[in-house]
Queue: 3 jobs
Job 1
Amino acid sequence: MTTSAPANQAAMTKDTFPINGTDYVELYVGNARQAAIFYQSAMGFQPLAYAGLSTGLRDRESYVVVQDKIRLVLTSPLKPGTEIGRLHDKHGDTVRAVALWVDDAAAAFRTAVERGAEPFFEPKREEDDHGHTMRAAIKTYGDTIHVFVERKDYEGPFLPGFVAWEPEYRPESVGLKYIDHMVGNVEEGKMNFWVNWYQEVMGFHQLVSFDDKDISTKYTALMSKVMSNGNGRIKFPINEPAPGLKKSQIDEYLEFHDGPGIQHIAVATDNIIETVTALRSRGIEFLRVPTTYYDELLDRVGEIDEEVAPLRELGILVDRDDEGYLLQIFTKPVQVRPTVFFEIIQRKGATSFGKGNFKALFEAIEREQELRGTL
Ligand code: FE2
């Protein structure tokens, strides 16, 4: 493992691209109404807002769900021939937009474009009875976009054009708090291009770099670099496939997603045992590592606050770095294509991403890939 551009170097220089946090993540899905019920019933989100036929839209419908600081927008087309439909046909259910909360959307857009970003839409003011927002957007890898959202003058449920969505059904939260990181998969040879892009365009710095010797199994290998913004609230690891004996999980993603995009959304909890117990009972399926993983667990990571038995029972993984440890687990893909999945993570001091688990994890993924006929 090599460390480059240490975090304190970034902290000493002025943040040239201030971002307050993730604002929302928009997914294009086959059936937004049903997806919204899935995110509520299985993953503990609450209904928040709606835009569609009954608010005057004719071409699409969006449902917004929320859990603590995490907002997901689920969007489907209402007729053939739309851009949303075209992208959904190409990618399957996919993350279209990673929206970032900023104080000045026009300034963020201007800065990004001056530094080489390709515009997606120019700054626009949107308003309704609850106030106004400013939004602008740029393109990143694949068909993914970053939307800059300025909402200090807005008091409505989500964004202008959306109305409160208040169905009777309100299942309990599972304790998900905020988005910890979002990982992108890009084509072989493109990782460094996007690393430089986030550095140059958005003032991000690199946290840690792995090489393919760090992340490889008998069959597959990948390379990954983690980009983070000035205040550390946004973390975007970027993966590319490395040549292996067989098709890596990144290759499989790129094939089924038909190009680069967001691979997983990592969401944080304060109590991973409770959260995963609830998710499992509500139908979420997780990747499992062999139970032998737990035989050497404490030798590998040292003392931890949790009992090993429930971790073993639930399949929760543990890793340690210089600053502490973390607990994590990965869902199976949440749509028919083997593309987007979620990670549940609880940090106890550790600021890394679970490198010590990658080998056990990738072997678990390979067993799933074999079942899918990819390997
Ligand atoms: Fe992750």
Job 2
Amino acid sequence: MGRVLSVASEAVPLVKTGGLADVVGALPAALAAVGWEMRVLIPAYPALRKQAARWPVVWSERDLFGGPATVLSGEVAGTAFLLLDAPHLFDREGGIYAGPDGDWRDNDLRFAGLSWAGAAIARDGLADGWRPDVLHAHDWQAGYAPAYLRYGGSAVPSVITVHNIAFQGFSPAERLTALRLPEAEFHADALEYYGGVSSLKAGLVTADRVTTVSPNYAGELRRPEFGMGLEGVIAARGTDVSGILNGVDEAVWSPEVAEHPYSATRMRGKAKARAAICAEFGLEVPGPLAIIVSRLTDQKGIDLVPAVTPEFIAAGGGVLVLGSGDAALEAQMQLLAQQFPGRVAVRIGYDEALSHRMFAGGDAVLVPSRFEPCGLTQLYGLRFGTLPVVAAVGGLADTVITANPAALAAGIATGIAFHPTEVAPFAVAMQHLTALYADPKLWAQMQRNAMRQSVDWGESAARYAALYAGLTA
Ligand code: ADP
Ligand code: GLC
């Protein structure tokens, strides 16, 4: 069995702010099935520190960017975790990326510390004798790990996965030494980025392979509107860059294990789940009940929802929103709920259990993103027969078979995709949703198609395995 060290800032079931955690947490089991043993290195944030208090120490360093650090090793829900306990970097109350006054100002050092520990473990192994064959870094938070390996002269191969290129880990040039980066590499072909440094760029130029989370996003990343300044760096890596689609952890996200269980051939539980969620939120919706489970940010196109809602409501629809993020978007959503009592309900906050009840009880899930590297909520929608209405970007375009005339004639549609991400095509998609829902036979067929579409990790795990194998052969 080959060994991989996965380095990231979040992973289920320990800590989650978004899809990154779902993916990092699901990969170890998926890869074990194809012959790769993965351990996951994440920071020991305060709650995790307590949980790991008795775990054995398998790595330590006296001065990890300003203080002592240890790595504790333990297993949670079948996954091997390595928790980086560096109190000066991670033991603070607040969010994992931000405190009460916004992003932690030393975020670059905090995650450089994570990356440094990852590189050191890859190079020297752990006290228990475990040593990885490959280091797999995720996003900007782990971007310096491949760089530390490369600039330290290590031969351990590395992969970096871009989950979202919008977050780049920028620091001014004067941080170079504090970040333990070599002055000689401060030029445009290596570390330098708009006069400073970016941990994501550092990973992109030093990792042996670059992946992103859908094939379509891999192509989009070469264009300025999606590459966000790194399009040239991505293009320069040529065929080293590939897109490997995220999967769904079906042990966690399946209607068969929902509160009111159901399946493609026995849908009664879904009707119960719908009635239950409507009762919970005081909704009475004769047409399709559309759900949104999302960070409320510009990326997600949530600002387009108010414009398409009145017509959708007039046609019989309803909207149930769970999310948090930008204050202005939160307020817009709350205003909608006030305008349409009984038809629109909003819960501001983060609630994993409620999200499950919503995927089970909704008829459709709306994902009008401006960009979406992969997107997981449309995959959960497919799995639950909660048909996705998506903007045709990134992984959304790769995973939803839109109900165009050809797909309907072939009987293969699984949702609705619209393009570009603007109000007019979104409104037409919502009209289409209402019309499809009004045809029970067609709707039931689309639900069956969606629930039978393969969204598990099987194929993608095999692709990661092949990538690792190619690097260690
Ligand atoms: P991103 O990572 O960009 O936020 P994804 O679609 O990949 O987008 O993943 C989002 C994940 O976070 C999904 O598991 C989704 O269910 C979850 N999620 C987002 N907002 C909330 C919320 N307010 N409450 C519960 N889960 C949420
Ligand atoms: C990012 C992206 C999302 C993707 C997730 C997991 O947060 O925004 O599209 O699904 O990472 O890869």
Job 3
Amino acid sequence: MNRVSQILSSPIEYLKGVGPRRAELLKKELNIFTFNDLLEHFPYRHVDKTKVNLIQDITSNSEFVQVAGVLVSLEVVGQKRGRRVVGQIKDKSGFLELAWFQGLQWVQKTLKTGSSYLVYGKVTFFKGNSQIVHPEIELLTEAVQEGKNYLEPIYSTTEKLKANGLGGRQIGKLTQMLLQALRENDLPENLPEKIIMQHQFINRFKAFQYIHFPPSADAYDQAVKRLKFEELFIAQLRMGLLKSRRHRYSKGVLFDKVGSLFNTFYEKYLPFELTDAQKRVIKEIRTDTGKGHQMNRLLQGDVGSGKTIVAVMIMLLAIDNNFQCCLMAPTEILARQHFDTLSKLLGKLPVSIQLLTGSTKAAARKKILSELSDGSLHILTGTHAVIEESVQFKNLGLVIIDEQHRFGVEQRAKLWEKAEPYPHILVMTATPIPRTLAMTAYGDLDYSVIDELPPGRQPVITVHRYETHRNNVMNFIRAEIDKGRQAYIIFPLIEESSKLDYENLMKGYENVKAYFPEPKYWISMVHGRQSSKEKETNMQRFVSGDTQIMVSTTVIEVGVDVPNASIMVIESAEKFGLSQLHQLRGRVGRGSEKSYCILLTGQKLGVDARERVQIMTTTSNGFIIAEKDLELRGPGDIEGTRQSGMLNFKLASIIEDRSLLSEVKTMSEILLESDPDLVSAENLQLKQFLQRQKGDPVWSIIS
Ligand code: ADP
Ligand code: MG
């Protein structure tokens, strides 16, 4: 290969001024292993070295300041953990305090009183005095001599690195040296000419120079514009290549006939008319599974949009084609409920269904395993228990995973290995992942969405009440129960193991009991500390209507379906995230009765909590809620997406750059459609670039 990959993939210790010790630190602290990693450690801001603040102008509103002056004192003060170095810098207008809590030796060794320094950092106020903790500091003469009158990059670093002479400024020096050593063909163009022209991008080599050391603010913007685009485009292209490869080369089981089970069910046993969205999704899946390649599809549909029936019909399709199916759910309650639903819906058809969970008895388990391997069992529903190694199918053709965000990528992979060729995978989720996020994190999956609720659903009336009005709320619940309805009362138990949360739940339960005394009222309680049997019994009593009230933690959150329950009270609602609130609310409004969701909170609400409550009371659209959730929490917090490195871009933000993201996605789709293997001359640079990114799954595909 050419020189490109060689120099940029050099280990960081080979860079002049780094050496083995600092290299170790760079790896550990900043994940910088190679020259290229350093090059992609972009500055988070630039300082204009021509702008020096006067100390007297610093106010409590000042954020980052730069001052030039003489270091007039430097001493170690404090004991043990309070031990620190404190210095004073003086310019013609006044004094400013500097403080170091770490790297004390380095500070004492390097800085000299009487010398002039240029100091940069964030101002904080300590006992009324302004100070900069861990400032960037360099000799003034040095700064002036080097003629640093440009925008100087500031890099993120860590205390440990700073203590070893690798502060933000020193990192900048290393980067500058690296850039000087690079030639234009070390950073060759990777985007097709057409795209560059269309967007008037500066070339790649320049972009890297400018993003670190811009000659002007405009040059910096140009560099960011180009590199951000590239970052998103390459990511989308990789995903697109994976998907396109699966479509063209993966072997998948073939569901090519619609048989008697599917038809009989459709004509005789379908309990309701399917919505148009359900019909469309079933058709999409039928088309996809009838092509001979493996389907790997994400099915999104808001709570209550009716994903189960879609799953049922697709399973019948699989069985019609002589394959077995597996339906996996994240909790035992949900798995059992699926089992019950399937048993009821398919009771009159020659289809065998079993449930396998952690609490399945040994004898029953043995029977299930033998029926699975001789092929007489058609559908296995269950929890994680179904992915254990001992569970072997005769001819698994379809795996459906409900509420996917609770399953890790690795667990999914385990399922794939249960058959060759791979079974079709359908991942169903009601955690409405915003589209931008879905297309980024799951860009290699096909995507279907049920964007319509079954007819006749009334929106759940959602209100906010302060805890001080609990009396009114309880009276309201009583009136509804007396009309024959049922109610959920949910307590926050974020950490199932937290003692405090648990005590709150018990207190809450006693409190509810006081309002609703036996024998007129009966209460179920479900929480994570119970055995699954206890949970089950309590749940069943509520489902069958023996109890009118379900006091529970969020274990009830996913999937549970009790149409007669029409009230959802969420205690300490301020402690829940938006998606969770939405999921909980989805437990009601499933029948024909008017339903209510009451968010109880304390008097004091933070800004974010207030906004969450406000959103919940004004919209019931899961996609809007998901977008808001993303805005409020950021992508890193969304369950199950954290491991997906796809969301951690260096420059782009999937929130701020979402319109660019969808533009880029379209562009990459168009490109792959016309040239799926990147063989044309105009895409050659792109192909070579992807090939250089070793360790990437795409690497082996397109070489
Ligand atoms: P989710 O998408 O949240 O898993 P479910 O599949 O549990 O939703 O469906 C929610 C409720 O709506 C169930 O009681 C189901 O029987 C009912 N349902 C589903 N589809 C329809 C439809 N097309 N018409 C009427 N009711 C439906
Ligand atoms: Mg469901």
